[in-house]
């Protein structure tokens, strides 16, 4: 059974940085593109960034130039480097397969204070 375990969230001041990690088990990671998603309180979950097996990336306009997604295929791990954080980045962050979703992990909370 594939599991997704996110980590690295926390409380940071605006302008600060965080690096999120997502460890995935199973073969899904090796054959699929992966994405980072986030859900802010009272809002729908949204796609933040994606990365293919070959390393091609795409970003939501709201994070372009500030966030960087990367992956370590040997260790089934995907990362999200978040710089110049803003209060509106506050959310629970999740990783998942893209575009075909699998069971969600528990996510990791990111809180950006003013």
Cα-to-Cα separation, first versus last residue: 40 Å
The Rg value, from CA coordinates, equals 13 Å
Adjacency order of strands in the biggest sheet: 2-10-9-4-5-6
Give a count of the beta strands, DSSP E runs of length 2 or more: 10
* Series of secondary-structure elements, N-terminal to C-terminal: EEEHEEEEEEE
Based on Cα principal axes, name the global outline.
globular
Quick one: biggest sheet? 6 strands, mixed
What fraction strand? Answer: over 45%
Task: Give the helix proportion (percent range).
Answer: under 10%
Taking pLDDT < 50 over at least 5 consecutive residues as the criterion, the unreliable ranges are none
Task: Describe this protein's structure.
With 114 residues, the protein is mainly beta. Helix content is 4%, strand content 50%. The protein has a six-stranded mixed β-sheet with strand order 2-10-9-4-5-6. The chain has a four-stranded antiparallel β-sheet with strand order 1-3-8-7, with no helix packed on it. Strand 5 and strand 6 form a beta hairpin. The radius of gyration is 13 Å and the shape is globular. The protein starts with a strand and ends with a strand.
Summarize the structure.
By secondary structure, this protein is mostly beta strands. It has one helix at 28-31, and strands at residues 4-7, 10-13, 18-24, 33-39, 46-51, 57-59, 67-72, 77-82, 91-98, 108-113.
């Amino acid at each position: 059974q594939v599991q997704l375990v996110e980590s690295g969230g926390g409380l940071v001041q605006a302008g600060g940085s965080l690096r999120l990690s997502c460890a995935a088990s199973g073969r899904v990671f090796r054959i699929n593109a992966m994405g980072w998603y986030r859900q802010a309180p009272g809002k729908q979950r949204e796609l933040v960034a994606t990365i293919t097996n070959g390393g091609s990336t795409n970003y939501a306009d709201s994070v372009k130039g500030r966030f960087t997604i990367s992956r370590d295929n040997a260790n089934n791990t995907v990362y999200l480097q978040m710089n110049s954080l803003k209060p509106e980045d506050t959310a629970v962050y999740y990783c998942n397969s893209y575009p075909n979703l699998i069971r969600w992990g528990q996510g990791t909370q990111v809180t950006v204070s003013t």
